[in-house]
Design brief:
The complex is a heterodimer of chains A (836) and B (74). Chain A has 836 residues and is an alpha/beta fold. Chain A is 64% helix and 6% strand. Chain A is built from 37 helices and eleven strands. In chain A, strand 3 and strand 4 form a beta hairpin. In chain A, helix 16 packs antiparallel against helix 23, helix 30 packs across helix 31 and helix 31 runs antiparallel to helix 32. In chain A, 41% of the residues are buried. Chain B is of the alpha+beta class and 74 residues long. Helices cover 18% and strands 39% of the residues of chain B. Chain B is built from two helices and five strands. In chain B, a hairpin with a 2-residue loop joins strand 3 and strand 4. The longest helix of chain B has 9 residues. Chain B is globular, with a radius of gyration of 11 Å. The chains are: A alpha/beta (836), B alpha+beta (74). Chains A and B meet through helix 3, helix 12, helix 17, strand 10 and strand 11 of A and strand 1, helix 1 and strand 4 of B. Strand 11 of chain A pairs antiparallel with strand 1 of chain B.
Chain lengths: 836, 74
């Protein structure tokens, strides 16, 4: 019985089909985590083959293994420290020459390597001939051709992994001859060999090559492990300088050059390329997609399609999924302790509150699913780099990156995005500084949940200029986001690591349905898992803040008295009907619940046969109650029915009054009042403060809370009217300040978690919550106080602000970065990298 | 001449990289190294970045980065 575990690492360049291989090997057993200290995803999974469990880790796709990028560092550290039994080097067989550059670096790390030529179908289609046996003997390692997207060659790969990891065949891999550098390497190796600890733990020739390359992490390795590192590092430094002056070529250039040359030699003996353009199809598409005029037009079209499919159609889908969530709610309603006339059990309130909070999030699943699916399509097809190519110049001016395009589109560059997928899709941005800037500004874009408040306020206060106001609010967020990003880049982010833009433009691929669906499911699931506990925790906190300390005993007694009065009136009015004696004097709740349930069911059932069935069902449940709620022509029953409806209305009024009083006296209400002296200058009274505070959990809550605070004087009055009545001093200027505060509103909990995941720390999460709040209050105060002082109307203030924001955006766009992005090599004459 | 000065459609041979460290290493790792022939495929719609082809392999880079690639016309 073989029980020892095998650890396999997958390595390869980006766009080589590595994730297809990973999926084919591990299937559904995948697990995502972060490498310690960085936001690079660590994908792992496992499979069972010939009585053995094999753990597979999918290393991030890299072109090289230097220490200049986090992806390359984690890949390298994983191989050095975890010492996998085998590294499977996946490569795009059509790009053999370039991919071997990475293979050589893997081989230098002295681990067993299997070369997996994937996408052999593309190779065959293009008429490329590869001599597998010759390639294998040239490299000295097994070479396994596969077409993993339909599972071809999978078994061969599994067998090869097993053979190599069991050590059945010792590898004699090719060793790159670094020519004139070999004597220098020999010297360094002999110096290192005297430190047995270092020599036993790390591949020593690799270390010597890295030191000659000037790799800073290799130097730290030496510093940590050698007792007296400085004299040795001085030798290394001298060797580098000597090499450079005697060969007119920097050591790192020489190393790269020899690797490419060896790759070329090997490719020449084992590969025959057909004549003609290597990728005629992709070239033709790029002629359109990157065209001066057509390119941007196509980009706009793609963005529109993304919106249409995810936001519009996704929202339509929620019409089908919402009833399921509603069922969940009524299930909980049924289990929870039943409500009294004016006493709603706390447990019931709590359970329903939690269900509502969770449902609000679950309701977004269809939208998330479509969005994540579409992102996968964009990623797999190869369109993403083109998007970056088109937009980079504009975004780069503001400290962002060409690859910020997709996250910003998802976050809601116009009206109606969602910050969660926006922030999650920042992962691909290679430049740390731009990535953080993008993550931090996305919550300021117009997500779907901000829209209800805009619509409410515009309908009340800008009713005559709805189109202008809507245009303003849709586009102002972009004018705020760009300068804010530039300011963040110049201040808090200025010391963050940057990366060169240099980016591969891979050939286009047709995405596979399985790949896209798989990724969409996986990402939705991952997100839901990470977020659900947080949402519940926050919901609990807000519940406590809104419910406690609650209504005082005296006030509660007075509500009870009102209840008794109402019930008394009811019985007095119906005393001449036979129902007066049939109904229990002390408990009308069963009747009220029956009536409400009937009303709801009737609404859902509609007319015709369904209504008939419903009537029969309710008659069966309780003939007496049914006679009251569906009185037909019975005069006496009609009278009771009328009185019952009055009673129900009165109860609802009491409950609403109590809810309002509870919010009023709650911790959140107290906080809202306590903040009023500050927010007064932005035009926010305590009610608005409470609405804004309650929106911290989810922005949709702002409108719901306002709804609870502005109770209707008569049934069916729209919130618009209620608010206009309730706030007579409220002007369009107030509304404008409030809307701008909402634009700059801190991220919702779901987004905050996404920020934590993508930025990698709670510190950034807190920052992403606090800075928009400060910015929002400053902007709202400026608008309201200056607007009031200058006597501007809401519309005038709106235009003035828009003009200023536009000017400021232009100014920030041309504002230079303090440091030039790159610096010239040490000395231009001999510091450069020459071709010999 | 440096790469950022080349017009779309023109060809050249990389003579020398006048930058080291992060950008220099990245250029080499992405296949831009001395001795290789390249062709400027296009500029982006907003002029920057640019796309070049090196032996069947396509890379885009900013002009600001391309100015460190010295080229002789082929």
């Amino acid at each position: 019985m073989k029980q020892d575990k095998i650890l396999v690492a997958l390595a390869g360049q980006p766009n080589c089909g590595k994730s297809t291989v990973f999926n084919a090997l591990t299937g559904a057993s995948q697990h995502v985590a972060n490498y310690p200290g960085v936001t690079v995803d660590k994908m792992s999974g496992r499979y069972h083959h010939n009585d053995r469990w094999v753990d597979v880790v999918d290393l991030p796709g890299t072109y090289s293994l230097t220490s200049y990028s986090p992806e390359e560092r984690v890949s390298r550290d994983f191989i050095l420290h975890e010492k996998p039994s085998v590294v499977v080097n996946v490569m795009d067989a059509a790009n053999l020459k370039r991919c071997l550059y990475l293979t050589f670096q893997l081989l230098e790390m002295e681990i067993p390597v299997i070369l997996n030529l994937n996408m052999m179908d593309v190779v065959q289609k293009r008429g490329i001939r590869i001599d597998i046996n010759r390639l294998s003997s040239n490299l000295g390692i097994p070479v396994v051709p596969t077409i993993m997207k339909n599972g071809e060659g999978k078994k061969d790969l599994l067998d090869a992994i097993e053979a190599v990891s069991s050590g059945a065949e010792a590898q004699k891999p090719v060793r790159i001859d670094y020519g004139e550098m070999e004597p220098f390497l020999r010297d360094i190796i002999s110096c290192l060999a005297v430190a047995p600890y270092l020599a036993n733990r790390y591949p020593i020739r690799w270390l010597a090559i890295k030191l000659m390359e000037g790799d800073s992490k290799a130097e730290s390795l030496v510093r940590e492990n050698l007792p007296e590192p400085e004299p040795f590092l001085q030798i290394v430094e001298r060797s580098r300088a000597d090499f450079e002056s005697s060969h007119q070529e920097s050591p790192e250039a020489h190393i790269a050059h020899r690797r490419y040359q060896t790759a070329n030699d090997i490719a020449q003996t084992s590969l025959v390329l057909p004549p003609g353009s290597p990728r005629p199809f992709s070239d033709r598409i790029d002629g359109l997609v990157c065209h001066r005029l057509l390119g941007p037009a196509i980009l706009v079209g793609v963005i529109w399609l993304l919106y249409y499919l995810a936001i519009v159609q996704g929202y339509n889908l929620t019409n089908y999924t919402w009833p399921l969530l509603a069922k969940l709610r009524s299930l909980v309603e049924g289990i929870a302790p039943s409500p009294g006339f004016v006493e709603i059990p706390l447990l019931r309130e709590f359970a329903l509150w939690i269900v509502d909070s969770v449902n609000a999030l679950l309701n977004y699943i269809p939208i998330f699913f479509i969005l994540f699916g579409l992102i996968a399509v964009l990623e797999d097809s190869g369109y993403m780099p083109r998007m970056a190519f088109i937009m980079d110049r504009l975004f780069n001016r503001f400290g962002l990156h060409g690859q910020s395009t997709l996250p910003m589109v998802l976050g809601g560059i116009y009206v109606g995005g969602c910050a969660v997928p926006g922030v999650m899709s920042c992962k691909g941005i290679p430049d740390e500084r731009s990535r953080l800037a993008t993550i931090l500004i996305i919550p300021l874009l117009n997500c779907l949940a901000k829209v209800p408040l805009y619509v409410l306020l515009i309908n009340i206060y800008f009713a005559a200029h709805k189109a202008w106001a809507m245009f303003f609010i849709s586009t102002i967020s972009l004018l705020l986001v760009l300068p804010v990003s530039k300011i963040l880049t110049l201040t808090v982010l200025k010391d963050k690591e940057t990366a060169p833009f240099v980016m591969e433009m891979p050939p286009y691929h047709l995405p596979t349905l399985r790949g896209v669906l798989g990724r969409a499911v996986e990402r939705v699931w991952l997100f839901m898992r990470k977020i659900s506990t947080i949402v519940v925790a926050v919901a609990v906190a807000v519940f406590v803040l809104l419910q406690f300390p609650g209504i005082s005993r005296e006030r509660m007694a007075s509500y009870h008295a009102e209840k008794d009065k109402a019930v008394e009136t009811f019985f007095k009015k119906i005393k001449n009907t036979p129902f007066a004696t049939q109904l229990p004097k002390d408990d009308l709740m069963p009747l009220i619940n029956f009536s409400e349930a009937y009303k709801d069911a009737k609404m859902a059932a509609g007319d015709g046969a369904a209504a008939e069935r419903l009537n029969a069902e309710f008659r069966e449940r309780d003939p007496l109650y049914f006679a009251i709620v569906q009185p037909g022509d019975d005069k006496e029953a009609l009278k009771v029915n009328r009185e019952l409806r009055k009673l129900i209305k009165e109860r609802k009024g009491l409950l609403r009054e109590m809810r309002m009083e509870r919010i009023d006296t709650s911790f959140l209400g107290t906080l809202g009042k306590w903040l009023e002296p500050v927010t007064r200058y932005a035009g926010f009274n305590w009610r608005v403060n409470v609405a804004l505070l309650s929106a911290l959990a989810a922005k949709e809550s702002s409108v719901a809370t306002l709804g609870a605070l502005y109770q209707p004087e008569e049934e069916g009055q729209a919130l618009e009217e209620r608010m206009a009545q309730g706030e007579e001093g409220f002007t369009p200027l107030h509304a404008l300040a409030l809307m701008l505060f909402m634009v700059l509103y801190p991220p919702c909990m779901a987004t905050a978690i996404a920020v934590k995941l993508q930025a990698g720390s709670y510190g950034w999460m807190l920052f992403s919550i606090i800075y928009p709040m400060c910015l929002g209050i400053v902007v709202a105060t400026a608008i309201f106080s200056l607007g009031s002082a200058l006597g501007l109307s809401g519309l005038e203030a709106m235009f003035a602000f828009y003009g200023l924001a536009l000017l400021f955006t232009l100014f920030m766009g041309f504002f230079p970065f303090h440091t030039k992005i790159q610096q010239q090599g040490a000395t231009p004459t001999n510091g450069g990298i020459d071709h010999v | 001449m440096t790469l950022d000065q080349m017009r779309p459609g023109s060809r050249g041979r990389i003579k020398r990289l006048s930058v080291r460290d992060k950008l220099g290493q990245r250029l080499m790792d992405m296949g831009i190294y001395p001795g290789l022939e390249l062709k400027v495929v296009r500029n982006a719609p907003l002029e920057d970045p640019m796309e070049v082809e090196l032996g069947g392999y396509f890379v885009s880079l900013r002009h600001d980065e391309a100015r460190f690639v010295e080229v002789e016309s082929a």
